[in-house]
């Protein structure tokens, strides 16, 4: 452990946002807008990971923070998601697979359809517009299956490549598939300030900064279900005393 914990806040982890036929990890654009409106109307303050990393231990956030993140860096983020987020003033973090930039999701054996990833130029434009860029490793291979040297390369090389690409710091990581054990956590700590996993089950007021829980709102698209999941993800942190 790195000696401190963070307050648990809701972290939304989207994948696809579009209105096409493919429903695989897909949120409809209208659902995304509604979810962001619910987030804002119920008093949550969308924040960047840097705002979260500034909180240590038992320090309760002065606001009801929430993070909005997207995995894989698909074209549909630029086409559908970012215009909605930008219009509402909601910051976003985009976790990029370094080796997939400008390519297709051929790495994904589960995907029923091919989807195009954002190009290097588009990522630079989005970063310039305020989107925070994080690492989703080099190849999206499950880290728990890799050798120590392969693990190190996936984390180190993706960070260096993305920093060179955008001309800025890349300090956050999302584990592929959300899977990480003690070895992967320790490796992430060597290269990043924060690392995001998936929902591990029961949540409390604090979380490990290298195993931060997230949930995918594509499974909670009804307003009541989405709001209930948000409340569950607060872990007992409800803003100012």
Instruction: Write the H/E string, N to C.
Output: EEEEHEHEHEHEHEHEEH
Q: Can you tell me the CATH class?
A: Alpha Beta
Q: What structural class do the secondary elements suggest? A: alpha/beta
* Unreliable sequence segments: none
Global outline? globular
Write down the overall mean pLDDT.
92
Report Rg. 17 Å
Give the tally of structural domains: 1
Give me the number of helical elements: 7
Give the terminus-to-terminus CA distance.
Answer: 29 Å
Name of the CATH superfamily: Glycoside hydrolase/deacetylase
Strand-residue proportion:
15-25%
Biggest pleated sheet: 5 strands, parallel
Quick tags:
241 residues, alpha/beta, TIM Barrel, two-stranded antiparallel ribbon, 7 helices, 11 strands, 34% helix, 16% strand, globular
In brief, what are we looking at here?
This protein has 241 residues and is an alpha/beta fold. It has helices spanning 29-41, 49-53, 75-88, 120-128, 148-166, 182-191, 223-233; strands spanning 6-7, 11-14, 16-17, 26-27, 44-47, 64-71, 93-96, 132-135, 172-174, 194-196, 206-207.
Structural description of this entry:
By secondary structure, the chain is an alpha/beta fold. It has a single domain, classed as Glycoside hydrolase/deacetylase (TIM Barrel), CATH 3.20.20. The chain has 7 helices and 11 strands.
Topology:
Blueprint: E1 6-7, E2 11-14, E3 16-17, E4 26-27, H1 29-41, E5 44-47, H2 49-53, E6 64-71, H3 75-88, E7 93-96, H4 120-128, E8 132-135, H5 148-166, E9 172-174, H6 182-191, E10 194-196, E11 206-207, H7 223-233
Parallel strand pairs: 2-6, 3-4, 5-6, 6-7, 7-8, 9-10
Antiparallel strand pairs: 1-11
Helix pairs in contact: 1-3, 1-7, 5-6
